[in-house]
Prior knowledge:
Blueprint: H1 8-17, E1 24-30, E2 33-36, E3 39-42, E4 50-55, E5 62-68, E6 80-82, E7 88-98, E8 101-115, E9 122-128, E10 133-138, E11 144-149, E12 154-161, E13 164-172, E14 180-185, E15 191-196, E16 203-210, E17 213-221, E18 227-232, E19 238-243, E20 252-258, E21 265-273, E22 276-281, E23 287-292, E24 309-316, E25 319-327, E26 332-337, E27 343-348, E28 353-359, E29 364-372, E30 376-382
Antiparallel strand pairs: 1-4, 1-30, 2-3, 4-5, 6-7, 7-8, 8-9, 10-11, 11-12, 12-13, 14-15, 15-16, 16-17, 18-19, 19-20, 20-21, 22-23, 23-24, 24-25, 26-27, 27-28, 28-29
Amino acid sequence: xKARLLTGAALALTLGCGAASAQIAVSGNDNKQRLVNGVNxxxxxxxxxxxxxxxxxxxxxxxxxxxxxPHSVVGPPTGVAVTPDERFAIVTSAQRIDPGDPTKTIPxxxxxxxxxRANPPRVVQTVExxxxxxxxxxxxxxxxxxxxxxxxxxxxxxxxxxxQLSPVSTVTIGPANSGPSHVQFTPDGRRALVTRDGDxxxxxxxxxxxGETVTKTDRDITVGVRPYxxxxxxxxxxxxxxxxxxGTGDADTVSLIDLRREPLLTADTISVGPxxxxxxxxxxxxxxxxxxxxxxxxxxxxxxxxxxQLVILRIEGGRLRRxxxxxxxxxxxGVVFSRDGRxxxxxxxxxxxxxxxxxxxxxxxxxxQRIPVGGGPAAIRTAxx
Length: 385
């Protein structure tokens, strides 16, 4: 661990004794790939990937510790999940270095379980999912885990009991190129939604859940082009989907899905800018934070080079409305809200840090606080309760 972070003993003490005031976020960090002159480049002999445990509960968010864990920037920035009791993190690894050609990556299949309250925090289990495990979610009961396998066209189902993951089943979502990217439970645990970003796919599938039995229904929801990241409001009334588009510089979209009725329907889709990557909903069910690449990962001098943006939308009358935005770092990835909704933390992949913003319900203010992390931050989540 780096000297700027707490030791394992201090981290365990902070998490164990400060649970009443702490709110834990976990950032997954990829060391295999970096942006070099606008090109996503595989790093020669990279150090291990990591996760960073962050406390959002205080006036000033702070990093508590880091653990070496396989991870990947490939896939939506929802490749980590935190159990409802904030004791465990579940981290996917969609890509690994190709052992036959270290200048390339190939699909991975590892999912890691980390005990973040152990002394020191440690990986306690590694299980296999399908090819390219990406988005991952835990139900509110803390008993079931779903993993979207982006290169396999499937979702892996795991039981979570006594601090261990056990495989239950694999649900076929579509062909291998359908690109299941993120899967998320509804708060009642009876359904889950799966984004599918395959080039000829572009839909959101609905899963039915009965205990540990997970089945794909015949309902596929039409949203925008290449749905990728997703969030669901804590009250279970709405889902928001980031549609990343074709990466051609055109304005892309966010869709709002009405979960209050059957069949589930897209209620609104609005333009937000080129390549919305990260997306998350606020604890008050009213706001949506979206990170927009806006060409920020383009090479210097490219005509579509732009400045990445953090955009805040409001869910109002069954529609989405843009209310404010602020510039952020290049190749931005995930985003999370604090429990009171007043702090927004964004991952800046190229800058290898987390940026902290304040949100008063109308305006964003950049605090200028940056939290360095041990790699390119690629996914971030808090516990869903």
